[in-house]
Amino acid sequence: MIDKAARLRFLHKAPPILVLPNAWDAVSARLFEAEGFPAIATTSAGVAATLGFADGGAVPPGEMIDAIGRIARAVRVPVTADIEHAYATTPDEVAAVVVRVVAAGAVGINLEDLLPGMSEMEALATQSAKIAAVAKATAQAGVPVVINARTDVFLHAIGAPDTRLAVAIERGRAYLAAGADCVFVPGVRDKETIAALVKGIGGPINILAMAGAPPIAEMQALGVARVSVGSGPHRATMALVRDIAKELKTRGTYDAFTRHAIPYAEANALMR
Description:
Blueprint lengths: L1 H10 L6 E3 L1 E2 L2 H9 L5 E3 L1 H8 L9 H14 L4 E4 L8 H14 L3 E5 L11 H18 L4 E5 L13 H15 L3 E3 L6 H11 L3 E4 L7 H7 L3 E3 L3 H19 L4 H4 L5 H7 L2
Parallel strand pairs: 1-9, 2-3, 3-4, 4-5, 5-6, 6-7, 7-8, 8-9
């Protein structure tokens, strides 16, 4: 576990850029690992849907941690877990949840600064205290977790548009000072803003891959340390299942799931 945490931390610090696919169960994690990714993230939205919940803090923390554990056990590479707001409010409570996540097998976490149902982000001092508490607690537990501190100012369009860049930079710098290893700024897709974030925050940043965002090579040239795909692959899989259902119900044919299906033997071997 300590070696995996060190490996994941190192992947944020040197080229090539860290490209993280987000898994939602054991088989999606195995598929990503088989394609050669050096680490795997989880997606809270994908895990939540798989467990029968909506995204946004609705999953009971025990169920989320169990799912993270199954993913971590399924692969050999480091796993970083999307734990939303950590299903807690105070710094000590957040740290206690993260210690459980690490015990389940993850060596990294995403921690958001927007609580479910809120329209404003957590106070900067409080969020920084949460990050510091997580760093301290996991170090004491023997596995210093890699903290990807997320700020939602762009994703949720918080505040006036002309203030968001400054807020993201202020929060990113504070989160790094509190002990975060990387700052996640989802919702940004234009090169100028990404470059300004890299320069202003002055540490590793994570950008969410989305329509209109620069390709991986351009992200690396801009100085981005990490790119993740979030719930995109899970939602694309959902779209395929929906297409299968529509074809069966309307035409009564099987093309949607027979044209590109992984052969049974290969699928079964993947999970051995």
